[in-house]
C-alpha cells in the first residue's frame, strides 16, 4: 500500500485541552524509534512541551513538531496545543496535514468540546480520525462517547474496534473489526493476539455489520454484497476504508490509552495505511503541482537563530540557496521537538524549518516566482485585551519591535495603540494566551512590563441648550489679539456626532474666520474638560465681533474654546459609556448560565438562537457596557468546558 506514497506525510494531533495529545506524540516517537526513552508531560521529560512556559504550566503552548522514519516511510507529526485560546496554531497545523488525529476524552459530556475542531475539519474536507484516549480511566465509555461525538460531527463516524472488558468492567483489550482479531492490552507492553472472546462474539458481529453498512453507503458493490449476504473480502474492506477516509466521507474511530501505550501501534499502522499522499493533499487544496512550492504554517523567533519559518514542502525539492518569494533560503533543517538538524535540502511532503526568510509570513505559499496565493484561515478576532507599559519610557521602542515579532509569530495576537487613551493594547484570545506571550516577551527582551485592564473610552454629552458669549483680547506691545463670538449649543440625538454652522449676517465675524471658530470648538470637544470627548452636540455661531488689525484665526480659535469652556457647565453635561453588542456562543446546555453572565454584567439580553452550522450550540446576543466586558471571556469559558467564544462590536453610547 505504501509503495504508491511518494514523499513524506504529515499527521496533526489536535483535540481539547489535556486530552493526551503530547503523551500520544511521545508514544508515537518512541514506538517509531525516533527517541530513545519515553518521557512524560507530568515529569517534564517529554520531547514536546520543552519551552519553559509549557513545562511550568504542564500544557502545550506551541506546536511540537517531529520528523522521523516509521517502517521505511517519512513522517512528520505535529502535536498542537489544546487550549481554545491557542486554536489558531492548531488550525495552521491542520491546514498542512494529510490527516488529522483528533484526540479526545472518553467522556460523552465532553464531546461538545470537539465542536470547534470538527467544524473546521468538516468545513475544509480535511481527512481525520478520532482517537478516544484515556481508556484506562474507570468510567471510560467508547459507546456513549462515540454517540455523543456523532451528534456533533457532520460526517458519519465509523467504529473500527470495540473494547474487551473483564467481569469487573475493566478494559483488557480490543477487537479489530476489520481483521476480526482480538488483542490483550497491558500497560507499556506490546499487545498480544488472543482468541476471540465468545461472550462478545455477537456484539462484535453487530459492530462489524454496522461498520460495513456505513462503508456500503459509499460503495454500491459492497452494498450489493451485504444485501446478498456475501462476506466482503478483508482487502475490499480496507480499500473502502482508505478511499472513504481520503475523500473525507467517513471518520474512523480508534481508542486507547496514551498513558499506558495501548492502542498506539494500532493507530500508527492505520495512519501508515490510510493517510493520503502529499500529492492527494496538494490536489485537495488546489495547490501548484510543479515547481518548488512550500507553505509556511508556523513562524517563531528562536533567540540568536532569529526568525524561523516552519514550512511544508508541497512540491519540488527545497535547498539552501534557493530563492523563494524573494528571500534566499538558508539553514534548511529537520525538526525533532526543540532540536533541529541542518539537512541542507528536503523533498516533497517534508516539514522543515527555514532560517531568516525575512518576508515570509504564516500562511504564505513560497515559490520561485513568488506570486502564488493559497487559501488560509483568518485568525480569530480578539476577545480579551491588556494595556501594557514599560518601566522606562525609553524602552518603548524595544517593546514595539518585540510586539511586532510576537504578532508575527501568533497572528491571533494583535497590538494596537489607542490614540485616545494613549494606551498600548495587547489583544488576543484570552488571559492564558496573553500571559504566555508576555512571559516569552519578557524573556526575549529582558524588559519588565506592567499590565492593566484597558481604560474604557468614555464620552460626554450635554442635555440642555444654551447661548454663550466669549471674547478673547490681548494687548501685548505690537500686534494685539482680538475675537468676539456668540454661540448657541444644543444637544443632539445619540450617534449624531458634531454639527457646526453659522448664522452670521453683515460680516460681524468675517467669513475667513468662521472655520477657525469651528476648529476651536472641535478641539475643545475632542479633548473634553474631563479628558474624554464630548459628542452629539450642535454648535451655531450666531454673532461676534472682530478688529481689522488684531483679529486672527488663532484669536477666534481661542475665543471659541473659551465660549465652550464657559458654556458646558450650563448645558447639564453627562457621562456616556460605550455599550457593546456581544454574541456569546456555547453548547446549548450552558445557555442559561451565559444569559446570567450577561445580565450580571448590566447586560440586556436581545435573545438567543441556535448557532448556524454548529449542532448543539446556541448563540446568546446581548448589549453589555464595555466597562463590564473585561474578563467576560474567562467567565464564559469557565461555565462552558472551556469552549465558549464571543464576538463583540461597538453598538451605542448610553448614560453612564
Ligand atoms: N489516565 C490517563 N491519563 C492520560 C492519558 N494520556 C494522557 N494523560 C494525562 O493527561 C494529562 C494531559 O496530558 P497531555 O499529553 O499533556 O495532554 P495534551 O492533550 O497534550 O494537553 P494540551 O496540549 O495542554 O492540550 C497528563 O497528566 C497525562 O499524564 C491516558 O491515556 N490515560
Ligand atoms: Mg499537549
How would you explain this protein's 3D organization?
The protein is an alpha+beta fold and 656 residues long. It folds into 5 domains: 7-276, 3-Layer(aba) Sandwich (Rossmann fold), CATH 3.40.50.300; 284-367, Elongation Factor Tu (Ef-tu), domain 3; 384-452, Alpha-Beta Plaits (2-Layer Sandwich); 464-571, Ribosomal Protein S5, domain 2; 576-655, Alpha-Beta Plaits, CATH 3.30.70. It contains 16 helices and 34 strands. Helix 6 (201-216) crosses helix 7. The radius of gyration is 32 Å and the shape is elongated. Bound molecules: guanosine-5'-triphosphate and magnesium ion.
Bound molecules: guanosine-5'-triphosphate, magnesium ion
Structural shape: elongated
Main sheet overview: 7 strands, mixed
The residue-averaged pLDDT reads 94
- Give me the secondary-structure category: alpha+beta
Number of helices: 16
Distance between the termini: 69 Å
Strand content: 25-35%
User: What is the helix content?
Assistant: 25-40%
CATH class of the largest domain: Alpha Beta
Query: What is Rg?
Result: 32 Å
Order of strands side by side in the largest beta sheet? 2-3-1-4-5-11-6
The domain tally reads 5
User: CATH homologous superfamily of the largest domain, by name?
Assistant: P-loop containing nucleotide triphosphate hydrolases
Query: Do you know the CATH architecture of the largest domain?
Result: 3-Layer(aba) Sandwich
Number of β-strand runs: 34
Amino acid at each position: 500500500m505504501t509503495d504508491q506514497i511518494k514523499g513524506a506525510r504529515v499527521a496533526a494531533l489536535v483535540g481539547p485541552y489535556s486530552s493526551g495529545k503530547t503523551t500520544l506524540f511521545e508514544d508515537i516517537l518512541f514506538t517509531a524509534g525516533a527517541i530513545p526513552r519515553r518521557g512524560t508531560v507530568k515529569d517534564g521529560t517529554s520531547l514536546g512541551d520543552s519551552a519553559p512556559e509549557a513545562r511550568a504550566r504542564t500544557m502545550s503552548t506551541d506546536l511540537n513538531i517531529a520528523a522521523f522514519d516509521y517502517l521505511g516511510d517519512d513522517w512528520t507529526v505535529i502535536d498542537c496545543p489544546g487550549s481554545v485560546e491557542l486554536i489558531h496554531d492548531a488550525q495552521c497545523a491542520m491546514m498542512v496535514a494529510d490527516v488529522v488525529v483528533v484526540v479526545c476524552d472518553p467522556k460523552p459530556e465532553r464531546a461538545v468540546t470537539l465542536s470547534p475542531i470538527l467544524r473546521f475539519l468538516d468545513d475544509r474536507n480535511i481527512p481525520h480520525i478520532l482517537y478516544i484516549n484515556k481508556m484506562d480511566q474507570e468510567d471510560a465509555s467508547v459507546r456513549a462517547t462515540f454517540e455523543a461525538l456523532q451528534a456533533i460531527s457532520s460526517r458519519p463516524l465509523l467504529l473500527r474496534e470495540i473494547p474487551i472488558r473483564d467481569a469487573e468492567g475493566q478494559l483488557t483489550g480490543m477487537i479489530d473489526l476489520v481483521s476480526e482479531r482480538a488483542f490483550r492490552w497491558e500497560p507499556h507492553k506490546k499487545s498480544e493476539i488472543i482468541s476471540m472472546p465468545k461472550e462478545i462474539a455477537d456484539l462484535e458481529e453487530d459492530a462489524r455489520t454496522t461498520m460495513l453498512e456505513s462503508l456500503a453507503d459509499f460503495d454500491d458493490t459492497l452494498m450489493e454484497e451485504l444485501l446478498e449476504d456475501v462476506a466482503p473480502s478483508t482487502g475490499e474492506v480496507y480499500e473502502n476504508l482508505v478511499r472513504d477516509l481520503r475523500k473525507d466521507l467517513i471518520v474512523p474511530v480508534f481508542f486507547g490509552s496514551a498513558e499506558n501505550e495501548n492502542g498506539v501501534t494500532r493507530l500508527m499502522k492505520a495512519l501508515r495505511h490510510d493517510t493520503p499522499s502529499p500529492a492527494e493533499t496538494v490536489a485537495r487544496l488546489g495547490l501548484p503541482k510543479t515547481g518548488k512550492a512550500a507553505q509556511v504554517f508556523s513562524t517563531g523567533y528562536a533567540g540568536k537563530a532569529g526568525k524561523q519559518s516552519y514550512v511544508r514542502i508541497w512540491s519540488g525539492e527545497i535547498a539552501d540557496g534557493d530563492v523563494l518569494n524573494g528571500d534566499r533560503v538558508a539553514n534548511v533543517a529537520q525538526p525533532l521537538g526543540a532540536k533541529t538538524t541542518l539537512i541542507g535540502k528536503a523533498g516533497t511532503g517534508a516539514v522543515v524549518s527555514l532560517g531568516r526568510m525575512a518576508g515570509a509570513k504564516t500562511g504564505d505559499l513560497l515559490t520561485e516566482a513568488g506570486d502564488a496565493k493559497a487559501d488560509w484561515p483568518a485568525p480569530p478576532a480578539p476577545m480579551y485585551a491588556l494595556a501594557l507599559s514599560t518601566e522606562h519610557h525609553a524602552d518603548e521602542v524595544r517593546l514595539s519591535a518585540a510586539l511586532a515579532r510576537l504578532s508575527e509569530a501568533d497572528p491571533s495576537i494583535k497590538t494596537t495603540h489607542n490614540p485616545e487613551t494613549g494606551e498600548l493594547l495587547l489583544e488576543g484570545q484570552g488571559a492564558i494566551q496573553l500571559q504566555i506571550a508576555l512571559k516569552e516577551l519578557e524573556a526575549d527582551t529582558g524588559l519588565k512590563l506592567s499590565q492593566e485592564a484597558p481604560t474604557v473610552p468614555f464620552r460626554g454629552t450635554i442635555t440642555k441648550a444654551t447661548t454663550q458669549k466669549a471674547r478673547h483680547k490681548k494687548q501685548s506691545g505690537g500686534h494685539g489679539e482680538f475675537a468676539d463670538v456668540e454661540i448657541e449649543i444644543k444637544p443632539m440625538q445619540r450617534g449624531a456626532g458634531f454639527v457646526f454652522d453659522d448664522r452670521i449676517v453683515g460680516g460681524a465675524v468675517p467669513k475667513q474666520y468662521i472655520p477657525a471658530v469651528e476648529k476651536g470648538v472641535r478641539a475643545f470637544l475632542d479633548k473634553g474638560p474631563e479628558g474624554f470627548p464630548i459628542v452629539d452636540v450642535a454648535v451655531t455661531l450666531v454673532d461676534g465681533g472682530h478688529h481689522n488689525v488684531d483679529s486672527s484665526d488663532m484669536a477666534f480659535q481661542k475665543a471659541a474654546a473659551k465660549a465652550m469652556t464657559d458654556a458646558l457647565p450650563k448645558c447639564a453635561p453627562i457621562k456616556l459609556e460605550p455599550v457593546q453588542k456581544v454574541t456569546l456562543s456555547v453548547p446549548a446546555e450552558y445557555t442559561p448560565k451565559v444569559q446570567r453572565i450577561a445580565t450580571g454584567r448590566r447586560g440586556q439580553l436581545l435573545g438567543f438562537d441556535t448557532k448556524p452550522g454548529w449542532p448543539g450550540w446556541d448563540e446568546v446576543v446581548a448589549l453589555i457596557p464595555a466597562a463590564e466586558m473585561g474578563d467576560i471571556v474567562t467567565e464564559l469559558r469557565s461555565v462552558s468546558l472551556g469552549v465558549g467564544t464571543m464576538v463583540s462590536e461597538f453598538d451605542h453610547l448610553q448614560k453612564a
